[in-house]
Amino acid sequence: MPSLAAESRLRSGFRTAGRLLLGGFLILAGVSHLTWSREAFYAQVPPWLPLDVNFVVVASGLVEIGLGLGLLLLRRRPALGWVVAAFFVAIFPGNISQFATGTDSFGLNSDQSRGIRLLFQPVLVVWALWSTGAWREWRQSRRARRSGN
Predict the structure, then answer these.
(1) CA-CA distance, 16 to 132, in Å (whole number)?
(2) Is-contact 83 144, C-beta < 8 A?
(3) Is the model's pTM score more than 0.85?
(4) Theoretical Cys-Cys bridge with 134: which of 60, 63, 73, 81, CB 3.0 to 4.6 Å?
(5) For 20-61, how does the pLDDT look when each residue is reduced to its tens digit (9 = 90+)?
């Protein structure tokens, strides 16, 4: 039977791998915003957004690269986890817009495929919070407040 310390190290290792994978994913997605997939990302900019489509795609790509680098390099990970989760929430209207307008992009060429994609956005939010320890830190601070009162 593994010790608590060994289990903790294993969980920490999984979280670290998850954080590094998410950071790499964000960097790759950000670079694709700026290069080979720029036009495909136009489909995710809601038509009601009063900003230039190219600006939104480039800016969101730069933000993704920055967040990805942060996940790979920064020490204050729980705070960064909340920022990454907020980013995923902020871009969710673009995914909803792509579904609502029936815009094909990234191989999402049916309402079903665009709808399934919507289900993955909450997974990204949870992934950001879990892999950075943000969720764990929040739960621990709630417990500490409850026990301190």
Answers:
(1) 8
(2) no
(3) yes
(4) 81
(5) 999 999 999 999 999 999 999 998 999 999 999 999 999 999
